[in-house]
Design goal:
There is one protein chain. This protein is of the alpha/beta class. The protein has 22 helices and 25 strands. The strands form seven sheets. The chain has an eight-stranded parallel barrel with strand order 1-2-5-11-12-13-14-17. Helix 3 packs parallel to helix 12 and helix 15 runs antiparallel to helix 20. It starts with 8 loop residues before the first helix and ends with a strand.
């Protein structure tokens, strides 16, 4: 990673003088802010300078950023400042074994923000401590990309409510022990954002907020190295504007990429970020982090400057919203995913590799790739945490590394084709009922849409589907990190094939796994004889056991080889790493599997399955039924 520039005394004095002038003009002095400024200004200045020191106005820009941060801190509500004091410098709250996440679209799950508020009693019943509301800011229809084409970060979509309602909801969630998570779409804005409208009108200041060029010379030069993300939407990475200029649009034609080589853009987006923090948002999901810096002659993905940007945004947060956390969304090579996970960048990260390989294991009944990933790629820096999930709002892409697969004798290209075929029911004997997303017959590339229940075969064999759903979640709940439920999955919600009838959704199959609130299924959640009741009962048992098992806090994991490619195993030692530990076993086979006594020679013979409370004698071996999972408390000899 590129090193930050050294910070001289002149720069520090320049910033301090600007802050002093702002206070003379009415900004209230604050000892707590000044203490943090003494600590973080050298870091922020170094990071900011490494990006912008080639500009003659970089010190002026830095000073304006610090004054902006001080004003935001001054405006920060007292209850949030108290939360800052409680959480500052500690990761124990989000690494607790009591953490449980839920995610939903406001309109599809609860109609509006008041509807979400009315569901807080259910969230408490379930045990949620973290609620991610999918993009809810102003975004034009039908060109909203599910809310990811933001036209204002300071206005809630009026169909969902108001910013005042969001502030009120965040406060009530907090009083019920639930942290609020929202998306921060900071790679691009809607072409209807005020900044984009001014750029389109030819305003030179705002034209520099985006990557806009007068002709195809520079777009052609960039496109020699960058890849097409959604070729069905538009070829290349640029689209032509009405006045003949060309603007960078990585994803959709109506999403214009922001130009972070301009420090004005950094300051503007830092302002939007701090505004959201002051509404009571606890965690920002940093969308499309891999794409935020562009450099000619490169792929414009995962560049060192992307990490510097994240660190600089973090330093701003440490000044003005110390308890705010970042969660990375980087669906890239596993080695690249890991680089964003750091207390100084993204303290939380989605775990896309584990998610994809859970589905791989369900399809193949072979856990080799998943076991390899847990051994090689699971443990992350102290002070950080995975967010483990079985399904999200997005498609499933097969993000394993080809070199990892090759070590196991697996051809990555062929294996992805098999998985795509299996999960869209093009493979004989498949239980899955997924739908292809971005299907490309020429390359064989494809990604997978579908709810957890449908991908597990709920429409084919409900009893087996329930077992697969619980098996998959047993891994997400016990490997370490924050387990995340896509709300509706906990009652086995199936695909909604009517998505294509909704305007703007007809060409995006991901809406098949974003169904509306399944009222009838929730009504059956307490009936154990129904699939809904069976799924929820199994998940509740995991939640209960996890929250009462200290060894399952944090993320540390020790691999364990069962010698059986159908049975996954790993050890959770807890924070001390001494005494008893949890040995998780999961049989992905459709047949019973017996592990001989020698497998457990490192443990005392007596063990207890925490989920069933049954006692096992390891010196007699362990037999797991098809799709059975155990969380054994064992004692090393």
């Amino acid at each position: 990673m590129q090193e930050s520039v050294s910070v001289d005394e002149e720069t520090v004095q320049y910033v301090q003088a600007a802050l002093s002038r702002a206070r003379q003009a009415g900004l209230t002095p604050d000892p707590a802010f000044d203490q943090r400024l003494d600590r973080y200004l050298p870091l922020l200045a170094g990071l900011f300078g490494s990006l912008y020191a080639s500009r003659p106005d970089w010190q002026e820009q830095l000073a304006a950023l610090v004054v902006q941060s001080a004003r935001s801190w001054q405006d920060r509500p007292a209850d949030l400042k108290a939360l800052d004091a409680e959480r500052e410098g500690s990761s124990s709250w989000f690494q607790a074994n009591t953490m449980l996440g839920g995610v939903c679209y406001v309109d599809r799950y609860a109609e509006n923000l008041d509807g979400v508020r009315a569901r807080i009693p259910y969230f408490r019943e379930l045990g949620l401590t973290y609620l991610h509301l999918m993009p809810l800011f102003l975004a034009p229809e039908p060109h909203s990309d599910g809310g990811y084409a933001v036209s204002s970060y300071r206005e809630v979509n009026p169909r969902l409510g108001t910013m005042e309602q969001l502030r009120s909801l965040s406060s009530e969630l907090r009083s019920n022990g639930i942290s609020l998570v929202v998306d921060f779409i900071f790679n691009h804005t809607s072409d209807e954002h005020e900044w984009a409208r001014k750029a389109a009108a030819g305003d030179p200041d705002f034209s520099d907020y985006y990557w806009i060029f007068p002709d195809r010379t520079m777009p052609d030069a960039y496109e020699r190295n960058v890849r097409e993300i959604f070729p069905e939407n538009h070829p290349g990475s640029f689209i032509r504007m009405a006045d003949g200029r060309w603007v960078w649009a990585t994803f959709h034609t109506y999403q214009w990429d922001l130009n972070y080589s301009n420090p004005e853009v950094f300051r503007a987006m830092a302002g939007e970020m701090l505004f959201l923090a002051n509404q009571g948002v606890d965690i920002l999901r940093m969308d499309a982090v891999a794409f935020i810096w562009k450099q000619l002659g490169t792929s414009c993905e995962n560049l060192p400057e992307a990490h510097i940007l994240l660190r600089a945004f973090n330093a701003v947060c440490r000044l003005a919203a110390p308890s705010l956390l970042f969660k990375s969304e980087a669906i890239v090579h596993p080695d690249e995913v890991a680089l964003y996970i750091d207390p100084a960048e993204c303290q939380l990260s989605y775990n896309p590799l584990q998610m994809a390989l859970i589905w791989d294991s369900l399809a193949t009944r072979d856990v080799a790739l998943l076991a390899q990933a847990l051994k090689r790629r699971h443990n992350i820096p102290p002070g950080t945490s995975w967010v483990n999930y079985v399904r999200s709002h997005d498609d499933i892409g097969w993000t394993f590394a080809d070199e990892d697969a090759a070590e196991l004798g697996i051809n990555g290209f062929d294996h992805r084709r098999f998985l795509n075929s299996f999960y869209v029911n093009r493979f004989p004997g498949s239980f899955a009922r997924g739908v292809p997303f971005q299907d490309n017959p020429k390359t064989g590339d494809c990604r997978i849409s579908g709810t957890t229940a449908s991908l597990c075969g709920m429409e084919v064999n409900p009893a087996e589907a329930v077992e697969r759903i619980l098996l998959a979640h047993s891994v997400a709940f016990s490997t370490g990190g924050i387990p995340l439920l896509y709300l509706g999955d906990e009652v086995g919600q199936v695909n909604d094939y009517s998505y294509a009838q909704e305007p703007g959704h007809e060409e995006d199959s991901r809406w098949v796994h974003r169904p509306r609130f399944p009222e009838e299924q929730y009504a059956r959640r307490t009936e154990p004889a129904t699939p809904e009741g069976a799924v929820l009962a199994g998940l509740r048992r995991m939640i209960q056991v996890r929250s009462s098992t200290p060894e399952l806090a944090g993320t540390r994991l020790i691999d364990f080889d069962t010698g059986n490619r159908s049975v996954l195993a790993y050890q959770r030692p807890g924070s001390s790493g001494e005494g008893a530990l949890i040995l998780a076993l999961a049989n992905f086979s459709d047949f019973a599997q017996t592990l001989p006594a020698a497998t457990f020679g490192a443990y005392s013979p007596a063990a207890v399955d925490l989920l069933s409370e049954a006692t096992l004698q390891l010196d007699e071996g362990v037999t797991l039924l098809p799709r059975q999972y155990l969380w054994l408390r064992v004692t090393p000899v």
